[in-house]
Amino acid sequence: MDLKTIISCLPESYQSDGIGQEPDPIAFSDQDLAEISAMFWEEGYLYLPRPLLSEAEIQPLKESIDALVAQKLPPVFIYLAPQPWQIFQRFQKLLQHFLGEDYGILPHLWAWHLDPQTEEAGWPPHRDCQGQTVFESEENGAPGFLMSLSLWIPLTDVGPDNGCMYVLPRSRERLYPQPVEAPHHVHLQDIRALPAPAGSVMGWRQDLYHWGARASHRAQTPRISLSFEFQNRAFHPLAEPLLSPWRPPCYAERLALIQQQFHKYTHMDSKAAHWQKNFGQA
User: Fold this and answer.
1) Residues 118-152 pLDDT 10s
2) Residue 217: CATH number of its domain
């Protein structure tokens, strides 16, 4: 593995133990959070299709992922840099609203670059966690109690043409006689597309059935995106190590964490097995 080439693709070289200064959290009013929460508990996902991150924040990440891909390197190596960690730190208020004051980062992360020219696809239909991570209220649509949450950030504008996210809303799946176990169980008219501009955010409870679409060769831009998963620390960790959002891992730990993702996601990403062989841990 040529770390020198990987690091040359990143916004800057970071081999120190620090991530840098903690960024300012994005402000959400009580009204904002109430509206986001109401939709989340009814539909199973949060969807904020407006730019919350500036072009100055996301452009270096997009350019770095483009550079990694040009060198035939996995986009997930972007997490060697501090910027992705800092960007997700900015959603502290949103995460604390759903997961409580003391939440952690699960060791599950990924980055995507779907090339329209080769009509690459996002991940197939799945749930992020098969176990129980949500404790529902007895009143349909009322707030329950959340163990974990996934966040997904597009670094380019995403739509049906370049592989945006699709979900089966919980409001529809609740009407099914039993939970969906395979794509052919989904009623096609229940599917919801989630187009979004660069710098926005969406997220979902970890039992939400969702997937990424296939990019069309007619799309003008690739779909470039990042994801992290988070957990309420009041529960036993769903996976270890459960990382601190306030003290992200040092450089060596970030590298090891990235290498672990290839084996973890061989069943989701067609390139992961190749990347595991060439870049994974021995």
Assistant:
1) 999 999 999 999 889 998 776 665 678 899 999 99
2) 2.60.120.620
